[in-house]
């Protein structure tokens, strides 16, 4: 029944994919990244209802002026920054622990290919982390979430179809 379990995560991804276009962008993202003041206020009204949000808006404007001179770093610059080593080591530990959880051994694979499957999964996770973190600033979070959920739903539909055939 593991294929039903995989289908459930695809169903959740499909539901999220259908409802994501109806949610507004994050107000701080609209103001700080895009510079869209009107869009920020509209998103605040849509998320929080009618009201006076000038205090929150002023706080975001102060944050914008504080971060105005801050340079946005790419992936290689972040990896060279010593202040992020604790966070990077935590992420690395998480990825390694996922590789040691035994998922490859429970997938009914031949014992001789399990190390290669684990290595392939680890490499694909590393590539996806680097790729996603480097393009998220270019496209924005909404498009990446939408595309990711669409791709995940498509892959799971193809997986279910291939299992049925």
From TrEMBL:
Keywords: Membrane, Transmembrane, Transmembrane helix. Residues 1-165 form the Major facilitator superfamily (MFS) profile domain. Pfam families: Sugar_tr (PF00083). It comes from the Eukaryota. Gene3D superfamilies: MFS general substrate transporter like domains. Its main location: membrane. The chain crosses the membrane at residues 6-24, 113-136, 143-164. It is found in: Membrane. GO terms for molecular function: D-glucose transmembrane transporter activity. GO terms for biological process: D-glucose import; dehydroascorbic acid transport. It is a multi-pass membrane protein. One of its GO terms (cellular component) is plasma membrane. The keyword Transcription does not apply. This is GTR9 protein. The gene is Slc2a9_2.
